[in-house]
Amino acid sequence: MPQTMIELPTEGMVAVYERPRAPFELRRFPIRAPRTGEALVKVRMCTICRSDLHSYLGHRPNPTPGVLGHEIIGTIVALGDGITHDMRGDALRVGDRITWSEYFVPSASYLADVLDLPHKSPGVDKYGHMAATSAPHHHGGFGQFCYILPRSWILRLPDGLSDEEATPINCGVATVICITELASLRIGSAVVVQGLGLLGLYAAAVAKTRGARLVIGLDMVPARRALGLQFGCDHVFDPSAIDDAGLVEAVRTLCRPDGADAVIEVCGDPAVIPAGLSMLRTGGHYVLGGVVNPASVVALDVNVILRKLITLRGAHNYHPRHLVEALDFVVAQRTRFPFRALVDARYGLDQVDQAMRDAGDRKVLRAAIVPEGVTPTTSGLDRVEP
Ligand SMILES: [Zn+2]
């Protein structure tokens, strides 16, 4: 029998959009007991990732009527059979606050089990990327509840970590752990971060934590450059205030003697790639982490890659080990970097339209949906709150 609270709710609310750019509506969908390998959580917080905006705006295909939100934490309401411990071996109980991988895989596969790329295995699906009409309906963060589906990876969150620090771990932070691993950062590396949105700020902080001697952040938004200096950047530049040749020269002057050891693209604009490649030293690493949309086309002189022995890597999703490292990074560095300040606005489940607008207009850095306050169908939920 599944471990559960005394009384499961019979239904829960989900913020659904009918088609790209249509307003969100709150709809009720039924709740059932979690099946084998599943858990049911009450969503505590879901932060809006840039990819939620891309999906909503129709920049990439996403099934509709849609449920968005994959950067989520929640409180366990019920555990299905077979879900007893998290990926680190800590026991899971009803009432625990948890994070989990942003994706799940349907079954064993060559890519997952032989090549150790579970995040790229056939049929991989992500929370907040499925139609609301697909059972069990509650599979995104813009809702009161979310089912954690089989072959996801769960981590219990330590007490003392705020929801604001914990929520971006399963997308933003874990992705950056993956990106910086692919960049082969070493003690003493000189690193350039193209784009100081949430990923770029975490990238600067992770680069410093991995031992970088020098981190240079590039962003057109003054407030983000100011934040960059709080998150590990030693220097920041406004790429719109200087031409590419001047920017490359400025970066190379700082990264003596031959240029940057690694350049990390997390701005989503393929036009920055040629200049980024020119900032690298011979044998340097360039990692693409932001150009997530199809048709991100750019003209490159690939002879530069050949001649300078450059390693070019793409990062998309992350390996489950990066989720563990992401949590450990935030826990260990939370007094060094003001992670909590990154989630700078809260919205109710009935304010998703406003939250998406503010996030899209870059009025806020990381908007958080906090569904608490929407009345559930039964009052039993309060009994599982810690
Ligand atoms: Zn994301």
Task: For this entry, give a set of tags.
single chain; 386 residues; alpha/beta; eight-stranded mixed beta sheet; six-stranded parallel beta sheet; 20 strands; 24% helix; globular; disordered C terminus; binds zinc ion
Topology readout:
Elements: E1 3-4, E2 11-17, E3 24-30, E4 39-47, H1 50-56, E5 66-67, E6 71-79, E7 97-100, E8 103-104, H2 110-114, E9 125-126, E10 130-131, E11 145-148, E12 154-156, H3 163-166, H4 172-182, E13 190-194, H5 198-209, E14 214-218, H6 222-230, E15 235-237, H7 244-254, E16 260-265, H8 273-278, E17 280-288, H9 302-307, E18 311-314, H10 320-333, E19 345-347, H11 352-360, E20 367-369
Parallel strand pairs: 13-14, 13-16, 14-15, 16-17, 17-18, 19-20
Antiparallel strand pairs: 1-6, 2-3, 4-6, 4-11, 4-20, 5-10, 6-7, 7-12, 8-9
This protein binds zinc ion.
Zinc ion (ZN) is lined by residues 49, 51, 70-71, 171.
Shape: globular
Instruction: Report how far apart the termini are.
Output: 23 Å
Largest sheet: 8 strands, mixed
Count of discrete alpha- or pi-helical segments spanning 4 or more residues: 11
Secondary structure class reads alpha/beta
What percentage of the residues does DSSP assign to strands (E)?
Answer: 15-25%
**Helix share bin:** 10-25%
Mean pLDDT: 93
Gyration radius, rounded: 21 Å
Contiguous runs where pLDDT drops below 50 for at least 5 residues: 375-386
Assembly of the depicted chains: single chain
Number of strands: 20
Bound molecules: zinc ion
